[in-house]
Structures are given as C-alpha cells and as structure tokens.
Fold these 4 entries.
Entry 1:
Amino acid sequence: MTTKKFLYVNRKAPYGTIYALESLEVVLIGAAFEQDVSVAFLDDGVFQLTKGQDTGEIGVKNFSPTFRALGDYDVTKLYVEAESLAERGLTKDDLQDIQYEDEDDDYAEKPSIIIVNRAEMADVMADQDVVLSF
C-alpha cells in the first residue's frame, strides 16, 4: 500500500480564530498515523511561524513553539510562500528556526522551512494526493 501525501495549507493568522490551532492539531494527528505530511503557509498563515510571539495580552495560549516539535513526528517540510512574506513585510529572518534531525544523514540538523515562490507552491500542491486548507 502506497502512503498518500497530505498537504495542510494554513492561510489564517495564528490567533483570533481557531483555524491555525486546529490545523496544527490535525497535522499532528495525521503524522501520528504515519501519513506523509507537509504544511504550507500562505497569506496571513505566514504569521504562524514568526519569532517572539507573545499572547499574554490576548489571554490565549501561545502554540507557536509546537512547530519546533514537528520534526519529531516526521513532519519536515514546511513550505512558506515568498510573496506572502514580502506582502506582509516579513523575511525568512522573521521566522522561527525550525529544524529536524535527518536520520539518513547521521542525525544532522536540517531546516524544515522551505521558502518557495507562488509557482513552486502550485507545483507542491499539484504533487499531493490530498490538500486540506485551513
């Protein structure tokens, strides 16, 4: 049986709606069932990966550190759309340093975030068996 490729697309800001947290939970569930899971961040979804999030003033739990644990669940491909970053005045330097240990390369730490342009993101999406958008 061939493993299906799942892409979870995040388009919403991390707080203010339940979409971002729900997406993260579904990603973790999918990975626990050994799906081939990738995550894409477009539009305001790019804010989910920014450094230094402080949710104290809004009274909700900051779940952004959870993204750094995705590698432990074999979720190692976090695609971020370059145009979405630029449109929001962000660069790769504004994003968390999220890495995974590559067991096929003597557990070397490698970056999980992959910056792609819109055309490349379309190719990533076309290569999936299932695309779920949040």
Note: Residues 5-133 form a domain with the Hypothetical Protein Ychn; Chain: A, fold (CATH 3.40.1260.10).
Entry 2:
Amino acid sequence: MIYENKDQMKKGCENILACDDDDVRILDEGKFQSKLIDDLIYTVVFSPDPGTKEAAAFLIRRGAAALGIMSASIQSLYEAMGRKEVGGFTVPAINLRGMTYDAAQAVFRAAMKGNVGPVLFEIARSEIDYTSQRPQEYTCAITAAAVKSGWRGPIFIQGDHFQINAKKFAADADKETQTVKNLIWEAIESGFYNIDIDTSTLVDLSQPTIKDQQRTNFSLAAELTTMIRDLEPEGVTISVGGEIGEVGGKNSTVEELQAYMDGYLEELKKRGDDFKGISKISVQTGTTHGGIPLADGTVAEVKIDFDVLEKLSEISRLKYGLSGAVQHGASTLPDEAFDRFPATGTAEIHLATGFQNMILDSKKFPADLRTKIYDYLKTNMKDERKEKDTEEQFIYKTRKKVFGPFKLELWHLPADVRRGICAELERQFAFLFDKLKVNNTRGIMDKYIKPVDVPLKMPAALKG
C-alpha cells in the first residue's frame, strides 16, 4: 500500500508504531516487519505527497534504530586494516540501481547465511540521477530491507564516485564544486556515513611532474574532506575515499599514489591539525565501468594488473595507514578472478553492472516489459548511439538509464517474479562473499564498529 496522506499513514501505523519526543517506539515488531515496512518504503518512493514521504522516511529510519539497525561509518574497521590488525578479506561495495528494496533484502539474506560483517551499499552521483534515487530514498530502501530481512546491527551506506565533471569544472569551477558539495550535504543528512570523493577527473597528464598532474585532484579532495568533517554528526567519523586514476584510463603507479597522498596530507594540514584524512584509495588497474561490450552484446575479457593492485595496497597501508587500494568496475569480471582480490590485499571492491545485467537478462524478467524498455532506449537514447555501435552494444551501454523511467514497473513486478530474480541475485551475492573472504567476519565487524545513534527531527506531519 502507498499512503497518499498523513492521516492514512497514521491509521496504518496504529498499534504498531508510536511517536514520542522525536523518536519511535515499536509496539508490534512482527507487524512492523511483515507488512508495515513494505507500505512505508513504497510510500517514500511513490507517494504523491512530499510531507507523507518525509514522515514515512522518518518512521523507517527511527523504527529501524529501535531494532538496533543504524547507518554507520566503516572508518574504525578500515583503520584496523591500515594497522594490519585485521585483513585477508575484501569488503564488497554493491551499487543497486533497480528493484533496490528487494535486491537489498537478497544481500542481507546472503550476508546472514554467511555470517558476513562488512558490506557497503552505495550509489554514485551519476546513478542518483538516472535511477531517480535521491540519497534519502536510497537510505530508506536499504534500511527497510534490513528490517524486512531480519538483519540487526550496522548498515554501511556509501556515496560512490561523488565526482567532479571535468567539462563542467573547466567551464565554471566554483559552480561544479558547489554542486558536489550540495550532494555531500544531502547525503550526510540522509545517513551516508561513507563517501568516496572522486576528483581524479581533474588529473592533468600534460603537466611536467606527477605532483603537478595530481595537484588539482588532491587539493580539491582535501577541500571536500574538510567540508565532510565539518558536517559529520557528533561521534561519527565518516569514512572518506580518494581516487588517483579515473576508471577506464591508464593504470595507476606507486609514484602517483605517493604524489597524491603527500600533496593531499599537506593540503589537509593547512586547514587544521585535527582533520582526519581518507581511509582508502581508489586506483586504476585495467577495468572499465560496465565492461566493454562486443558487437554481439557480450562483454570483452579484461586483464587486471593484480601486481599493481597488490603493490599500491601495501604501500598505502605501510606509508599512510590506509586500509588499502579500492578496485572499481569489477562486477563483470570472470568468476575465477574474485578470490585474487583478498589475496592481493585489496581493501574494497565496487560491484554494479553485473547485478543490473542479472535483473534485465533474467529468464524470469517479463519479456513484454523488456521489449518496452528496449523500445524506450531506441526512441529516447538514440542520440547516445555511436556510429559503429551494433544495436546490442547500444542497448548494453544505455540500458542502465531505464531504472529511473521504469522504477514504478520494476518495483511492482509480480511478487513471484521479484522473488525469482532476487533468488538468482542472492546466489551471486553468496558466491561473491565467499570469494572475497567476508564470510564469518561478523565478529570482526562487531568488534570494531560501534554505531552512533544519530537523532532525527520529527517531521511536522507526525506531530500532534
């Protein structure tokens, strides 16, 4: 059910949730988990009334907190990895572009079965736009999925590639920087306590020295880091990531990492002695976001330079106390590649397009809806088709952009269809958790992560 106004929602919450002093008490946990949480998240996503949406979001986040489900920063675990107190696993960071509520439940189910601790749920600046998922909605979908699936404990929500657009920056640097700052503010308010700053688009390889090439990158990263530190809630140290090489570009080097980190730390110190820096560093090792589609729509095999990844991870820990290097664009790699990431000390791996492909290519996905989606692409995205693209390549490269326009249809697929697709996703999540060695890390997570209960202001629709 989608609540269209506050009175309808209050009636739905009767004898299940109670609001007192800017907080929520759970009167009937079973009904909250079995039905009301569904109604609340569908209201956040689809209600026509902004006040009702805001109230439903509050009830989800504070109701979850009453169950011990809280948004958290992974910072203290990454600091322990930097000190080499823990290791041997690679933290998966999962981008959910569509069917987010159902897909996140599949993640939590796989995590609980494997006794998995740290898993990041993330969304990039570009994805926020083309999937029509603002930070508040994304946080609520993940939080509601935790409630529904029976997860208890911290959840890690991350801003992925909060990226400076190089062309827009060249045209108006202040305006483009402010756009990213506004997104950071919105994300933190929504419970994103892990944020990856991506200013690597500003690396200028025409400059004579590596430090000069990285200068705008590390200077702006330091500026955005200080802003994050000013905005983070009391008691929370947001985990911030930096990036030295744009994904899809040339492979990163030790010299680039050192130039970036030394310059970044110098810039950070100028702004104050007490500003904590980044906890991880994203590098380029040969991947491309989404993979490279061939003429028949299949994805070309990618060769990752694991030696570079291992070397950069090790020096980032030894010299700078970081958790290690971060691998982007990995979800379309062959299955046999994934166990090499923990073996090389990779701290974190970002996984997105592979799950999108599983949803859209599933045999359980309605054929008529798939046809409708592809017809939409051919009509509305035709300007993005390159001259040499086959139809299969064009569709593969653009279909990520259907998750916003077709959100209503995807969230309202028949229950048996959603269950079938998510069972396939759950098996893949379980496979990846095993390969990345995060099974049986729940105890490690609980040792290092102590979530802070960040209060929220009760919306006007719930008062009185």
Note: DSSP finds 19 helices and eleven strands in the chain.
Entry 3:
Amino acid sequence: MITTAVIGFLAGAVAGMLGVGGGILFVPALVIGVGLSQVDAEATSLLAIVPVALLGAWSQHRYGNVRFGDGVLIGVLAAPAAVLGVAIVNAVPERVIEVAFACLMLLVAAQLVRRARQTAPPAR
C-alpha cells in the first residue's frame, strides 16, 4: 500500500512537470513496481482519478470555470463508454491491451517532443 502511494505521488509529480496525464506514468509503474496486470493497473489508475477530478472540479467551480451543462453531457456519455470499455478489455487478450497502451505512450512521447521543439528558442 505504501509502495503504491509513493508511486502515485512520484508519477503525479513527474506528470505535472511534463504536462501529461498521470496514468501515462502511473500504469507502467504499477505493472513494473507493484506487479499488477495491465488491466488491473489501468483500472487502479482510473479509480485514482476520481477524487482528483472531484477536487479539481470543486476548486474550479469556486473560480466560476465549470460549465455544468457540458459536465452533465460528458458524464452521461462517459457511463456507457466505460461499460463498453470494460466489455472490450474483457473480450480481448491482455497482450492487445498492453500493446495499445504502449502505442498510446509512444504517441504522448512524440507529442511532448513536438511541443518542446515548438517552444524551444532557435539554435544559434
């Protein structure tokens, strides 16, 4: 439990510094560091998002940045999408999920490199 908390804290800190979602770092850390399966690590990462999202929404509501109509629409669409996601994960081999997540990580890495190149000062 302590190892998972430390991994979550470190993954969140690094993800915040890099500007990526914490799951990109948290999921591999749970697979490698804790020994969870890919599916269990992804589910744990998604569950960890709930309190953070609630706290973030509450904080942003205080600043007047929450559009409730859009939030309700996203929530209504997210519920059946989550059920569909569970059905897909249960229907395909875990190796397919691992490869799909690896592809997602490569896309995020490419986006980070592209963004860094766009904001870097020109070379002399």
Note: The CA atoms of residues 20 and 108 lie 8 Å apart.
Entry 4:
Amino acid sequence: MLEKLMEMKESAKEKISEAKTIQELNETKSLYLGKKSPLQALFSQMKDLTNEGKKELGQKINEFKTMVEEEVNKRLEKIKEEEVERRLKMEAIDVTLPGKEIPVGALHVLTKTIEEMEDIFLSMGYSVVEGPEVEEDKFNFEMMNLPKNHPARDMQDSFYINPNILLRTHTSPVQARTMLKAKGEPIKVICPGKVYRRDDDDATHSHQFMQLEGLVVDKDISMADLKGTLSLLMQKMLGKNTKIRFRPSYFPFTEPSVEVDVTCFKCGGKGCPLCKGSGWIEVLGGGKVHPNVLKMAGYDPNVYTGFAFGIGIERIAMLKHGIDDIRNFYISDPRFLKQF
C-alpha cells in the first residue's frame, strides 16, 4: 500500500504540473482526492491492517493529501500569473500609433458675445443680474409704465400663460425687481437673458431671442452718460472707429427716448448695400428712465435720474461676424457653429 501511495505521489506531482487551466487543475485535484480516487480504495483496505499499520498508513495518507493541496495551490498561483502575462501581451498598446483625436466642444457664438459684452460692462463697474423668464404682468409691463390695456403693449405681442403670467418680452422686469430690492439706493446693472415675443420667424426675426439691457440710477445722470457708455461699448465690440448717433423715438419706460445707430462696419459710414446707402445701422434703443418708472420702484424722480437701454445679442453678433440670418443661431448646424 505504501508503494502504491508513493506511485500516486509522483503521478500527482506530474499531473498537477501539467495542468494548463484552472479547470484542468480542479479536475486533477478531484482525480487524487475525490470520492472516486484511488485514495478512497486505500481507506477501505485499512481495516485489514494492524493498529501499527493503520497508524503508519494514515500518517502517509495525510502527508499525501497535504502534498497535493500544496502543489495545487502553487500551480494555481502560477496559472494566474501566466494568464495575466498572456492578457498583457494580447492587450498591449502600440505607443507608436497616433492617438485618437478627442472632440472638444466650444462656447456658442451667442454665449461668447454675451460674455464679451459682460466683460466690458464689468470693467465699467456694472453688476450682472438675472431673473425669471416666466414673469408676472406687473413686472413685465405695469412697472415699466405700461398699464393694462395700454396701446403700446401691442409693440410686444406676448405669450401669456394666464392673464397675469407670461413669457417675458424683454429683460426689463429684472430691472424692476432690482430697483425694488435696492430700496432707493443707486444701482448700475446689466440684465442679459432670453426673451419671447409672438413673431414670424424669418431671416431677421425670431419668436425667441436674447437681449442685454442696462440700467443706471443715481443723482445727476444725463443723456451724455448714456452716449458715452454706448460709444465705448460699440467701439469695443465693433471696432475703435465706430461712431454712434441718437435719433428721437418713443418707449413707454424712458423719456426722452432714442434709437441708437452705429456707423456701418462694412463701409465705415460711406454708404453701401448693407446699410442701404445711409452709412448707419440701427442697433438698439434707450433713453432716460421715465419718472413714473422711478416712482413705482421707490425712487424720488426729483432727486434721482437714470438711463436704460436694450440691445439684441443676435443683432450685435450678426454685425460683428457678418451673419445674415438669425435662424442660424438656433438650428444647431455644426457647419455654422464651427466657424466660431
């Protein structure tokens, strides 16, 4: 029996060393230690041995089992190492190959335009404030000197959610909220954001567009302050030789009110098809804050004055980059967006 056990020991070592996979290793272990292994036959023959023989055989059997377990564990670690090496070779990276280009996004041209304008106003001491796009009629119209049924409301055909709630038609309600929050103190703010008006979509109009409004309220504010501010803005945005001019106009929330033109960036004011031969292009509206607007916001118009203006972001971007259709900003065509 001891000779047979020695033969099994040598055979087990050889078989375990030849196992290539974990499955083969488990099968080999089962072959020598399983319920149907030759080892079980030796157990069945122990009843015929003397006590001394049983003791000696039992010791040898335990040594055999320990040897098999140790050899299996050693081979298992080796198989795992070989598998790791094999996978590393299969999955090796060729560092000489050119890397894959990762697409990098960029800011939208309108976002860039807004941020450029914000930087200019921040350098002049303005603060940037924002407000809700779904607005109360009170802030959108009434506090802008446009009471209910006022005919000037037709200038801003609106999207109403209910009789008192609508999508804001300009960012002026942000100005109203800011003035109320200031409680009679001087303010100097710009209000950028999306606005909505029921309009036909064509090359120059959109039912949604972006606007940047500015408001200054303090003592002794004049139209000269407005002109100086807008002159600096347009020179920074459209070129240092850009000039502006005021034309009388009407807005319910300013008095006096003006339309603001800039010299045509294409012809320099000489006249061309872009400016229809006039040398000027209309860009925005503004004026001194109406006394009624100041009163409703808690300011004494005998002490405080101010100016306000509103600029279409798309209009400035179109002039700056020579874009001829406002719809290009919103159709998400990569061929257009990649230009900027």
Note: The longest strand covers residues 208-218.
